[in-house]
Predict the structure.
Amino acid sequence: MREADGTYVVSRYRDIVALLHDPRTSSRDVVTLGGFISTDPPEHDRMRRLINRHYGPPETPGRIDGMAPQLVDIVTALIDRFTGRSEVDLVDDFAYPLPVTAICRLLGVPVQDEPRFHRWADAIVEGIGPQPQGAEQARHHADEAFAEMGRYFATLIDAYRQTPGDDLLSAMAADDRTGEAMSRVELLTNASLLLVAGHETTVNLITNGMLTLLRHPGTLDRIRHEPHYVFPTVEELLRYEPPVHMLVRTALDDIDIASTTIPAGATIQLVLAAGSRDPDHVRDPDRFAPERHDLQSTDFHREDSQHLGFGGGVHHCFGAPLARLETQIALRELARRLENPRLLADPPPYRPNPVLRGPRHLPISFDRVHPHTTVADSAAMSPLEAGG
């Protein structure tokens, strides 16, 4: 569909997948977050490969593999703070501090600096995606926030070059194993990207997830009694209520798709959320059904299990393994430890951003908090990597 401003909106699953894999579409300079996600191959591939050496892709040992015990500790401590209370805001009290603490530990960012980058992240997120007319100020504030964050990381990285730690920033700053390393500007922009993207989308995934489970108490109860059921549940959440609703690309050449020619230079909006609910791709798309992704279920169908929750193509979400793991552990523990949780506002108030969709607050009540106990079939065992 062509909008009045010349933007082409693409919402069918097969068309989105085709364009995500089409080298004639470009991500360059269309994403406010910057870093390698705002570049195209081969530049994109080089930077992503350099970061991935230390981040740890799912197919090789890396930092993410060892984070599960730390994540359990963070989640346990946050839920312990609910003790003696009957109401909490799941965003401010849980879904935000969890990924922030995790990404700070991973990168080596002092968590006490959180108030500073919280302000920067809010400004950057406000500048992402389609803006109402006259919203140039939001873009300006986002640029200012990125500049301030760059100066912050410059100081931090210089310190780590002198006294490196075991964190990701130290490893990236010292990476010269093959004589190939990122420039200083690349290092600063990608550090900013990892910090912001490393928590903003996960906040939405956890919050959207708990909101959906409270609307589907049968699934919440099943996770409570069968903790491994959190694996297919998180995959269905990525399909049914994803944290990122659209991506933007630019056509580098004329592209013929769906009986339409998208001309070179046109802006393309890929509506991922719509694609994952395309009735030509998935059966009964508006039904929340984790069994779509359960390999042991008689209702499992491979086509139903494929979603766009983490995008696709060369820009498939870099942080997917960590986001999956954080959300699996978070929802499992909330299901197990909160007795009779219930929504206090439905629908809750949402953030105004059309790209990163999730509640701004999620007030819930509960009867009591159960003590933490070890789970045999921990979500740390082997996070499901289906979908995409």
Observations:
- The longest strand covers residues 247-251.
